[in-house]
Design a protein that fits this description.
The chain has about 375 residues and is of the alpha+beta class. The chain is built from 6 helices and 11 strands. The strands form 3 sheets. Strands 4, 6, 7, 8, 9 and 11 form a 6-stranded antiparallel β-sheet that branches. A 3-stranded parallel β-sheet has the order 1-2-3, with helices on one face. A two-stranded antiparallel sheet has the order 5-10. It is elongated and about 75 Å long. It starts with 5 loop residues before the first helix and ends with a strand.
Length: about 375
């Protein structure tokens, strides 16, 4: 018999031991009985899960609309459908008063109701947790210095000629509070407070300067027109700022709004960037479905789709050469989430709804010669 190398002998011996042990254990157990027992235990576990496996849910006390009767009914119902526990959140969002007496956070009446909630949950075997503070900020507030607050990464871009010393200052990155760059953004929660606003605080700290080679020549400024041929302010649309916007026609589902970018001569582009402020509201899909097209050979040809978010969206694609481009903004047929379909008798309050408009704000549509 041919001798195996030492390392291979170790692996062969180990495999033999494992195979032997497996064969012995399998032969020693009655397979049918074991399978039946496992199936029964599994079925019982689904029918009556242990406490550790039951889901926990958020339990919002909205704007003091709390009563002991409501607490008892809520917790008994949650226990009855198999919930394992709750995490209590005290929130507001300007929910209208529907109780005789509102229980304001940390007043004596609120503490009494909270004590009752904890004891009721304990009697039902429900785990009870509470958020570390009222509202959505959790551990934030005006007492937090900007240095210690949450940050976002921002940047600016300045094109310079290569081979020459840079004498002019580069563009300063934005320092405004908001979701993305200088977009600012709607503070939906602040809108719904009694004061109706929050105080934005400017903050900025430089991190680094990066030099990135760009091989493509800068593109000429286009003429931008609305769907009815009305000229739009191209400077506002193609600049790097998201804080300024112009209005374009909204259109309809059958005839959606669009804008056309016309260049003096054909250009080659490989990417595009789009920003539509306030078109993506919390807890729902985007309001529009953007489509970028180029007029090639006299026909409009699709280049790219965009996903609208609270930041600008960038799409890259194969090089396209044309002098006319079109951005169409068809309304999204399903912008609302599925949980916006309330059960019969439920009260539905759309906290983040915006007033209907006949126009769309467009803050940025840049076509770029280089891939992004």
């Amino acid at each position: 018999m041919k001798a195996f190398p030492k390392s291979m002998r170790h692996r062969a011996t180990f495999a033999a031991v494992l195979l032997s042990a497996t064969a012995m254990s399998t032969a020693a157990l009655p397979v049918a009985a074991e399978s039946s027992a496992i199936a029964t235990t599994l079925e019982q576990g689904f029918a009556n899960p242990p406490q550790s496996a039951r889901p926990r849910v958020w339990w919002h006390w909205m704007n003091g609309n709390v009563t002991k009767d409501g607490i008892k009914k809520d917790l008994e119902w949650l226990h009855g459908i198999g919930i394992g526990g709750v995490q209590n959140f005290d929130a507001s969002l300007s929910t209208p008063q529907i109780v005789d007496e509102r229980l304001v956070y940390m007043t004596d009446g609120w503490k009494d109701a909270f004590r009752f909630a904890v004891s009721t949950a304990d009697s039902l075997g429900l785990e009870f947790a509470i958020a570390s503070s009222p509202g959505w900020s959790v551990t934030g507030g005006p007492w937090v210095k900007p240095d210690d607050g949450m940050k976002k990464l921002v940047w600016s871009e300045t094109e310079v000629a290569s081979g020459k010393k840079l004498t002019a200052p580069i563009a300063a990155p934005p320092t405004v509070t908001g979701t993305f760059l200088d977009a600012g953004g709607l503070d939906f929660h602040a809108q719904l407070t009694e004061t109706g606003s929050a105080v934005p605080r400017a903050y900025g700290k430089p991190i680094m300067v990066l030099a990135v080679p760009v091989t493509a020549s800068p593109l000429a400024a286009p003429v931008i027109t609305d769907s009815d041929g009305t000229p739009l302010d191209a400077a506002v649309i193609i600049d790097n700022s998201l804080a300024t916007a112009t209005k374009m026609a909204k259109g309809s589902a059958d005839a959606p709004g669009f804008i056309t970018l016309t260049y003096p001569k054909p250009i080659t582009v490989q990417s595009a960037r789009l920003f539509l402020p306030h078109s993506k509201l919390p807890f729902r899909g985007a309001a529009y479905q953007p489509l970028l097209e180029a007029k090639v050979g006299g026909q409009w040809t699709k280049i790219a789709d965009f996903y609208i978010n609270e930041a600008s969206s960038t799409a890259g694609f194969a090089p396209v050469t044309a002098s006319e481009f079109r951005m169409t903004l068809a309304p999204n047929p399903t912008p609302r989430p599925t949980f916006d379909k309330p059960e019969e008798g439920a009260i539905l309050i759309d906290f983040f709804a915006q007033k209907p408009t006949t126009h769309i704000d467009i803050a940025q549509l840049q076509l770029m010669a280089e891939p992004r």
